[in-house]
Please model this.
Amino acid sequence: MKKKLAEIIVLIYILYLLLIGLLLQPLDELFQGLYNIITSTGVLITDYMVIGGVGPALVNAALVGLVGYIIVRINSVPMTGPSIASIFMMIGFGLFGKNIWSIFPIIFGVLIYSKITNQRFKKHIYPALFGTALAPLITYYALGTSLGLLGGILIGILAGMLLPSLATHLLKAHEGYSLYNVGFSAGFIGLLMYNILRGYSFTSQINIIWGTEFDNLIRLIIIPMTISMIIIGFIMNKGSFMGYKEIFNYPGILITDYLNIVGFWNTLINMGLVGLVGIIYIELVGGNYNGPSLGGILAIIGFGSFGKNPKNIIPIMLGVFIGTLFSIHDASAPGPLLAALFGTCLAPISGKYGPIIGILAGFAHLSIVSFVGEIYGGLNLYNNGFAAGIVATIFIAVIRGFKKEV
Model:
């Protein structure tokens, strides 16, 4: 019964964003905006609110999330922490980089892998959903080069076929201390394919399409959404936060499913709270609300069911902020702002080893993520996931090495 309620609540939030998107603009503007989005190359960072408008961006994001939701349901996958995280991640990046058609070649590629290896697609559903991080690999080569639509789709299918094996293998490198493991894997696939094709004069470069005029409107959308999660969770948890603090006893290392630990209602409270932490950070540094930053908040919310909590994400964000004080980066600029939001995938490090190590991890993450996207031409949307995988691998190896010496 509780899993069924979780399915209903997740669907309600998808429909909430869809309805707002449908109501924001007239139909002709909506369709034109959606057309602009689906014909965009989507290379990181491409703010769909700039490309198509706020309404079309929200509709696209909700539809992308709905695809993830339907795939989870038709494969009889329970609505657990990883399911919720993958759906919210798809929604978030549906605001900047994924669109309603570009996600399917990756998913189809994972399906083909499952058939070839005689495994159920259900076993690899999370690499399939998270793996849509490589959507720009499809849209860029399909729409931005002479390879055309068929070429882009075939590249996406091949990428999907590579993902499950690589995701399983690379998890061993950081031992679950980066929550965006598929983003780490997608970075290697993007690096491989981009650099092979670059040898044949197919190149791309990172975009900076970043909206600055949507702040008040997005506040009216996301703040009530996060607060409603806390209120609903509180009411359904018999009007209390009883059991919630147990979340803090777990560092968040993959796989930490909060639904199994504290139940769905406390998990929903946590999702709302971590979302508010992301909102407060944007307010404190004077950042903009737009497609990418809203996507970052939605990603944090989703992983509020699967490893992130206020205690383990704040040190990471603080480390990124401190990094901006002593470097060329401005905390409110696109890259550093997204580093603070998406870099919270390093939460297990601070959860396990304490806030000081967490701050150091966030500090290091800013430096790496600021430049690493160039190696795959912005074709992996989970740029922070790739950088965080590197940071986590280094930190865990060094920590383990010194512990052995001691």
Q: What stands out?
A: Residues 258-285 form the longest helix (28 residues).
